[in-house]
């Protein structure tokens, strides 16, 4: 994990392995900031959707029990949202380095779309 001091807050950048381990242990809330279309085509099972275009930091869940980790396609949008969350007063916020592309590249499980039927299916 990489950390960056941003004012009085800390921005964390997590690897896909760190995200998967914490997510599997139910220690984090994983929030996908891609578009609804991107999410419907393929997404990490159990990740919440809060698209960048509609992002409102005040609507985020509290962090008393679980850390919030954002992800997008490549890590650019999630870092932008993480920084906006810090500006809104969150003390510790994280995003996933490399985004969903890195998740898929590391062969992590996700929900994809069967191109023959259009139905969602588990990809391992």
Q: Could you please describe the fold and organization of this structure?
A:
With 124 residues, the chain is an alpha/beta fold. It has one domain: Rhodanese-like domain (Oxidized Rhodanese, domain 1). The strands form two sheets. A six-stranded mixed beta sheet has the order 1-2-6-5-3-4. The chain has a two-stranded antiparallel ribbon with strand order 7-8. The longest helix has 12 residues. It is globular. The mean pLDDT is 93.
Q: How is this fold's topology laid out?
A:
Elements: E1 2-6, E2 9-14, H1 16-24, E3 28-32, H2 36-41, E4 48-49, E5 67-71, H3 76-87, E6 92-96, H4 99-105, E7 110-113, E8 120-123
In short:
This protein is an alpha/beta fold and 124 residues long. 27% of the residues lie in helices and 29% in strands.
Counting DSSP H or I runs of 4 or more residues, the number of helices is 4
CATH topology: Oxidized Rhodanese, domain 1
What structural category do the secondary elements indicate?
alpha/beta
Question: What is the 3D shape?
Answer: globular
How many strand units? 8
Provide the domain count. Answer: 1
What top-tier CATH class fits best? Alpha Beta
In what order do the strands lie side by side in the largest sheet? 1-2-6-5-3-4
Distance between the termini: 24 Å
CATH superfamily heading: Rhodanese-like domain
Which residues form runs of ≥5 with pLDDT under 50?
Answer: none
SS strand fraction: 25-35%
Note the quaternary state here: single chain
Order of helices and strands: EEHEHEEHEHEE
CATH architecture field: 3-Layer(aba) Sandwich
Largest sheet geometry: 6 strands, mixed
Domain Rhodanese: 24-112
Protein name: Rhodanese family protein
InterPro entries: Rhodanese-like_dom (IPR001763), Rhodanese-like_dom_sf (IPR036873)
GO molecular function: thiosulfate-cyanide sulfurtransferase activity
């Amino acid at each position: 994990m990489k950390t960056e001091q941003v004012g009085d807050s800390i921005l964390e950048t997590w690897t896909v392995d760190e995200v998967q381990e914490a997510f599997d242990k139910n220690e984090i809330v994983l929030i996908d900031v891609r578009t609804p279309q991107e999410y419907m085509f393929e997404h990490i099972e159990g990740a919440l959707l809060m698209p960048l275009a509609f992002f409102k930091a005040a609507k985020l869940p509290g962090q008393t029990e679980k850390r919030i980790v954002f992800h997008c396609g490549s890590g650019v949008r999630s870092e932008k949202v993480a920084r906006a969350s810090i500006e809104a007063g969150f003390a510790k916020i994280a995003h996933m380095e490399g985004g969903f592309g890195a998740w898929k590249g590391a062969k992590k499980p996700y929900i994809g779309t069967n191109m023959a039927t259009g139905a969602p299916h588990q990809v391992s």
